[in-house]
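Lab notebook, bench 4. Continuing the backlog of folding jobs that were queued last week. Each job is logged with the same field layout so the records can be merged later without manual cleanup. Today's entry covers Carboxynorspermidine synthase, a 405-residue chain. Filled in by technician R.K.

JOB TYPE: sequence-to-structure
TARGET: Carboxynorspermidine synthase
LENGTH: 405
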Amino acid sequence: MSKVLIIGAGGVGSVVAHKCAMNSQVFSEIMLASRTKAKCDKIAAEIQEMHGVTIQTAQVDADIVAETVLLIKKFQPKMLINVALPYQDLTLMEACLATGIHYLDTANYEPKDVAKFEYSWQWAYQERFREAGLMALLGCGFDPGVTQVYTAYANKHHFDEMHYLDIIDCNAGDHGKAFATNFNPEINIREITQPGRYWENGEWVEIEAMSIHKPIDYPGIGPKESYVLYHEELESLVKNFPTLKRARFWMTFGQQYITHLNVLENVGMTSIKPIKFQGMDIVPLEFLKAVLPAPDSLGENYSGQTSIGCQIKGIQDGQEKTYYVWNNCDHAECYREVRAQAVSYTTGVPAMIGAMLMLTNEEWLKPGVWNCEELNPDPFMDLLNQHGLPWNEKVNVELPHEYPA
Ligand code: NDP
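JOB STATUS: finished
OUTPUT FIELD FOLLOWS
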């Protein structure tokens, strides 16, 4: 029985709050806090109506350590789940250290003024968390998150040495909008407009954004054009599995999405450099975010599925072997269960599972700062099956995108 504080009341925060409330045997008291309290209250009312559970709500600016510290002291949770934005990772880690509680997030820290994704800032907290006897679990969504648990599971049960890893992420859903992003638009657009990168033979190969693409055949969906992007879990995976000769991340985008994105980029709307507008400094990408649909508004009438998985090639008992593990998730089913679309759902459920393991499984509560592949994958894989993200696996399949880069 543990109290949990969830920060962030967007698409993902809503799913985490619903799923924690649905598991009140572990999460005995829940507080949802965010910058805009009205959003927390709306989610709390929905949870009361759908699951008969009362959760508390609060307003907090998570950029200000002292504000979060005050809230933690008042509510006294055992851990904090950060599903606000990556900009808040460090201030929230500081607040956890100051109050002696555990920490979990779903995306690595990014400074607001540079679109740069790397774990160095958060890994630098290793000693402080270890010395305090506290745990910080980083990137516990689907990707990052489950993709690392899948890889650790493959490494433990299927390979003596893993050599090639392709993470493949497809959203074949239709939300009926001309252009919208499935998670925070600002973070999403920063991620895909930066140069792509993949790991090969001990070094990073940088490519022009979206310049490598192929159709990949996704189970239950069919072939979809997929693009090589840099994705943050690659950094920790190649560090923790040094036998990997190549590691890439692929994501699908429809032509309509790419056309809109190209236009927005060409006219300067995706820039994070402030410009003067009517005497004020504004950041074009922040303005764009304000006019695009919010991720938590896309769920109703969203149809189709997501499919995210890992395809791995390596050696077991001296023989070459391939392994594919994946989950398909249906947007409409997620909406029925927790009023969310599948991208928020596939992020929020693993965050709840990570928190559940930290609170109930001694092996999973390890002082220090960790990425998801550094803990025993087996209990996580079991809980995925129990809490709405069942996985499938195939051994020795032909990997459809074994192309040269
Ligand atoms: P949303 O934009 O829908 O929600 C973000 C929430 O954070 C909003 O409620 C926002 O409040 C709140 N927030 C922002 N700044 C602050 C602040 N300073 N203090 C308190 N609250 C704040 O985003 P999503 O729910 O789609 O995404 C949430 C996180 O999940 C992101 O970090 C994203 O990168 C990550 N993610 C991870 C994935 C994974 O698989 N690992 C996949 C998808 C997302 P307000 O409403 O007032 O703006």
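OBSERVATION: The pocket of NDP is lined by residues 7-13, 34-36, 39, 60-63, 83-86, 88, 106-107, 139, 141-145, 183-184, 187, 294-296, 343-344, 347 (CB under 6 Å).
SIGNED: R.K.
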